[in-house]
Write a structure and sequence with these properties.
Strand content: under 5%
Structural class: mainly alpha
Order of helices and strands: HHHHH
InterPro entries: ARM-like, ARM-type_fold
CATH architecture of one domain: Alpha Horseshoe
Radius of gyration: 23 Å
Number of strands: 0
Helix content: 40-55%
Number of helices: 5
CATH class of one domain: Mainly Alpha
Distance between the termini: 72 Å
Largest sheet: none
CATH topology of one domain: Leucine-rich Repeat Variant
Length: 114
């Protein structure tokens, strides 16, 4: 029987450097797409209401991204009253604003069947 003259160089079954790490079973809120804290939700709501056109579009996109991933985020945005400013963006002459608002509203409505 032949033995490996350099046992430290032999790979162990779990030492594949190209293996993907196992996913975190308890990701932090930002990894789940949830707002990090209530202040983040209120900041997005403020930008939707008081920002310039570009800031409102970016805020609507952020609502969409966060609402898509988390029912907790959808609830937080409903409490923060983001629906009204998003609806107000729908008749905008800017197609990007209309699209961002519509997609954010659709993601807020998902799984909120009442």
């Amino acid at each position: 029987m032949c033995q490996n003259p350099n046992p430290s160089s032999s790979p162990t079954p779990n030492s594949n450097p190209n293996a993907n790490p196992s996913p975190n079973p308890n990701p932090n809120p930002s990894e789940r797409g949830e707002p990090k804290k209530p202040a983040e939700v209120h900041d997005v709501a403020r930008r939707l209401s008081a920002g310039d056109a570009a800031a409102r579009v970016e805020a609507a996109r952020e609502v969409r991204r966060l609402a898509r991933a988390s029912s907790r985020a959808r609830s937080a945005f409903a409490v923060a009253a983001v629906v009204e400013p998003l609806v107000a963006m729908l008749p905008s002459p800017d197609p990007a604003a209309r699209e961002a608002a519509l997609l954010a509203l659709l993601n807020l409505a998902v799984r909120n069947q009442r």
